[in-house]
Amino acid sequence: MRGKIQFKSIKFYNYSFNYIFRSLIKKGGYLVAPAASSLCDIFRSKIYYNSLIYSNVAILDSGFFCLLLRIFKKSKVEKLSGYLFLSLFLERNEIKEKKIFLIDPNKYEQKKNINYFRKCGFKYCHSMTVPKYNYANYKDNKLLNKIKNYKPDFVILNIGGGIQEPIGLYLYQNLKINNKKIIIICTGAAISFLTRVQAPITKFYDKIYLGWLIRLIHRPKNYLPRILKSFELIKYF
């Protein structure tokens, strides 16, 4: 059943991509796609927790989280990962003329990401590489002013590590661009699956909830700790 699912006061959207996309186009807002391992941090950081509570749209990125909702909450939900959301977003022809501002973690990925967006037909893309943020330095006025000057329709955060959501909230609360309904998309490292900087996930593996396995095989030392951390979620149901 479609609808909003509450988890610890966070409103997750159990809707199709098309429904969510139309809602964002109509109203603006900022979208988050928290992984299961990141969701565990809502019990450790008020900053991170607030960034999810105050999001306009939280999508069901984690297959493990979806399974827990089905088992413990009897909620029949359908996963919409950040990877799939961004993939479908890039296919929308009606936004190819819109202005895109990318926030990237380094010069190498910046080049890859810009080229990928242009390959998908986006004509107006600008990017800024940013330092490694933490909860003490993510309120970046330089970044904010760059975005204000460019006046984009979409801001897409391509940085991982669970810090993109607080940045998204900070930007959304402080961006006022000629009353434009700006849309901020916090899909983190999802773009790197498309550019093949990270694990070569496909829509097939994502659909059958095996994206985690591809990531584990690709970078076991990096991803295994995240998988183990995800199991903490069970005790909060």
Task: Describe the 3D structure.
The model has no long low-confidence stretch (mean pLDDT 90). The protein has an eight-stranded mixed β-sheet with strand order 1-2-4-3-8-7-5-6, with helices on both faces. The protein is α/β, with parallel strands linked by helices and 237 residues long. The two termini are 20 Å apart. The protein has one domain (3-236). Helix 3 packs across helix 8 and helix 11 (211-218) crosses helix 12. It has helices at 17-27, 36-39, 46-53, 63-72, 82-89, 107-119, 141-150, 164-174, 190-194, 203-207, 211-218, 220-230; strands at residues 3-7, 10-14, 29-32, 57-59, 99-104, 124-129, 154-157, 183-186. It is built from twelve helices and eight strands. Strand 1 and strand 2 form a beta hairpin.
SSE string? EEHEHHEHHEHEHEHEHHHH
Distance between the termini: 20 Å
- Unreliable stretches: none
Strand line-up across the major sheet: 1-2-4-3-8-7-5-6
What Rg do the Cα atoms give? 17 Å
Major sheet description: 8 strands, mixed
What percentage of the residues does DSSP assign to strands (E)? Answer: 15-25%
Number of structural domains: 1
Mean pLDDT: 90
What structural class do you assign from the helix and strand content? alpha/beta
